[in-house]
């Protein structure tokens, strides 16, 4: 399609958390209809990419990265207005910066259930037809009913008979068919509405970018139905680093790539094929996990006793060859027998008292074992990751973009570069490896997306005002370019935007809140407009709501003029 072939050129875009973008026709929070006025504004100003955070059903949770289905769209996003339902729930003014997604979803479900009941025969027929075309919805509907019935408890805590997905699907669709088809009907509505949005965007020349988390909630219909696709006794996370001395535990089961390969990656193919109905590009969350993942025992609360999976490990006979007994070092808490006859070394094992107290002769034999297979493991990881990414590209015509933030090993960086995968460069972290200083616009990776912030970071203005050395920021973003130092927050934000749009990155996609020039609430108190603060409780995040309606935001001539000029000057205007 010509439309797809034209996407890879210098462009600017906007990243939004959909429930935060409230329109005149929204019900409490942003929904699928909000994408229409957002598109009109973006096109008018010169943006040609709209990027969304995941839209998956979160159940009783909040994070779209911990959904109960890898396929299902959250009913929260269904537009009542697009359904012809005129129910409204708010005044013209937005009073609070937080949504209540579970309450809003339940109110919507009541309203749509009434529509379903009033047109039951036709609605059930539509749902049945949708089910035949999208069989993943069969397990989702059964799981969703049971998930509601057991109030969000993990499926492994359900009565034994319902832990069996085959029995459950048969039971639900025979005994509770009407209710099951209601959940299918919701997915049919969401599918229709999102598909229409994609068509509209193509008509006006704007691209939609979706988000594909690579990890899946343990309490999801996907893990319930296909536990063989996951290593259930392990959880994914991240090793210790400067930000967290104990690392991160995410709770998601580790993917079993060997089993997935035996199915020709059918689950992934189905996911990507479904996503393609709605998007032109997609973000691969934590692309490093395609190569290797930090795997931690399921019961652990820290990531200290994890290892990179898959890993060869050090065999028992390799210890014996050095005259060492691996069981002795396991008892000291330095290594772990992760598969029979093979051991991994714990992270920073050399800092442990058990290691420090060893004789120097023993240390000289033990430490080299920890690095024995690094070269061959990196070769294996690279080949495995490239194979997976190549298969993914064959499954869809969508353009993949890799989330390659954080500490990325050089072999993965090299691999992504050679594969010409579009990466992400966050301005505050994009610095010289030698001096630690910010790098100028022309030295940014061309095959990347330059951004001021992400959904997991502070906003640009909070970073500007409260994080790092202000003098070095002023010198780099203003003095170096011969621009006067900003006297207002608006001027500071415009200066940062000018820089990020001028970078050599092929795309420059900014968080919607970072475009809020002239919105005092965002500029003065940016910390209250953050989407997610990693490491804090789920319910305190993912509820953000922008303080003014999208139509009102879009009507501001001064802001539109300023942004339009920045995009025009940087050659990114569509």
TrEMBL record:
It catalyses: Transfers a segment of a (1->4)-alpha-D-glucan to a new position in an acceptor, which may be glucose or a (1->4)-alpha-D-glucan. InterPro entries: GH, Glyco_hydro_77. It comes from the Bacteria. It is found in: Cytoplasm. It holds the Pfam family Glyco_hydro_77. GO terms for cellular component: cytoplasm. One of its GO terms (biological process) is carbohydrate metabolic process. It is an enzyme of class 2 (transferase). One of its GO terms (molecular function) is 4-alpha-glucanotransferase activity. This is 4-alpha-glucanotransferase. It comes from Leptospira bourretii.
């Amino acid at each position: 399609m010509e439309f797809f072939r034209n996407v890879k050129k210098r462009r600017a875009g906007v990243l939004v958390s959909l429930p935060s973008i409230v329109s005149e026709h929204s019900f409490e929070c942003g929904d699928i209809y909000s994408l229409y006025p957002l598109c009109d504004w973006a096109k008018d100003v010169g943006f040609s990419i709209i990027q969304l955070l995941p839209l998956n059903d979160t159940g009783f949770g909040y994070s779209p990265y911990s959904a109960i289905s890898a396929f299902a769209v959250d009913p929260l996003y269904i537009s009542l207005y697009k359904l012809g339902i005129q129910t409204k729930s708010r005044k013209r003014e937005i009073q609070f910066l937080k949504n209540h997604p579970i309450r809003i979803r339940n109110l919507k479900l009541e309203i749509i259930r009434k529509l379903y009941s009033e047109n039951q025969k036709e609605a059930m027929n539509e749902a049945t037809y949708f089910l035949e075309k999208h069989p993943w919805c069969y397990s989702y509907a059964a799981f969703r009913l049971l998930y509601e019935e057991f109030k969000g408890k993990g499926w492994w805590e359900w009565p034994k008979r319902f832990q069996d997905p085959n029995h459950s699907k048969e039971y639900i669709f025979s005994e509770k068919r009407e209710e099951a088809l209601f959940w299918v009907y919701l997915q049919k509505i969401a599918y229709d509405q999102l598909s229409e949005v994609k068509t509209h965007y193509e008509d006006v020349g704007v691209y939609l970018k979706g988000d594909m988390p690579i990890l899946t909630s343990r309490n999801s219909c996907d893990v319930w139905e296909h536990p063989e696709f996951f290593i259930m006794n392990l959880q994914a996370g991240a090793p210790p680093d400067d930000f967290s001395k104990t690392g991160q535990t995410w709770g998601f089961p580790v993917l079993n790539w060997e089993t997935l390969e035996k199915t020709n990656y059918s689950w992934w193919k189905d996911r990507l094929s479904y996503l393609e109905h709605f998007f032109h590009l997609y973000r691969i969350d934590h692309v490093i996990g395609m190569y290797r993942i930090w795997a931690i025992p399921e019961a652990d609360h820290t990531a200290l006793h994890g290892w990179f999976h898959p890993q060869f490990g050090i065999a028992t006979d390799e210890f014996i060859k050095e005259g060492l007994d691996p069981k002795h070092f396991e008892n000291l808490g330095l290594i772990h027998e992760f598969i029979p006859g093979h051991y991994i070394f714990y992270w920073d094992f050399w800092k442990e008292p058990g290691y420090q107290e060893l004789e120097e002769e023993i240390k000289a034999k033990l430490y080299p074992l920890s690095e024995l297979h690094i070269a061959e493991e990196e070769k294996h990881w690279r080949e495995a990751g490239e194979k997976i990414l190549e298969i993914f590209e064959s499954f869809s015509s969508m353009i993949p973009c890799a989330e390659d933030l954080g500490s990325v090993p050089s072999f993965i960086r090299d691999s992504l570069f050679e594969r010409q995968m579009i990466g992400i460069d966050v301005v505050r972290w994009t610095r010289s490896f030698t001096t630690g200083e910010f790098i100028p616009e022309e030295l940014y990776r061309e095959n990347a997306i330059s951004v001021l912030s992400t959904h997991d970071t502070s906003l640009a203005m909070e970073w500007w005002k409260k994080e790092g050395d202000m003098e070095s920021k002023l010198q780099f973003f203003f003095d170096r370019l011969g621009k006067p130092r900003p006297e207002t927050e608006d001027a500071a934000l415009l200066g940062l935007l000018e820089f990020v749009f001028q970078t050599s990155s092929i795309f420059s996609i900014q968080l919607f809140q970072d475009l809020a020039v002239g919105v005092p609430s965002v500029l003065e108190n940016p910390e209250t407009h953050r989407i997610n603060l990693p490491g804090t409780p789920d319910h305190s995040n993912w509820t953000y709501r922008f303080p003014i309606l999208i139509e009102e935001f879009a009507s501001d001539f001064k802001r539109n003029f300023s942004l339009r000029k920045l995009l025009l000057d940087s050659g990114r205007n569509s």
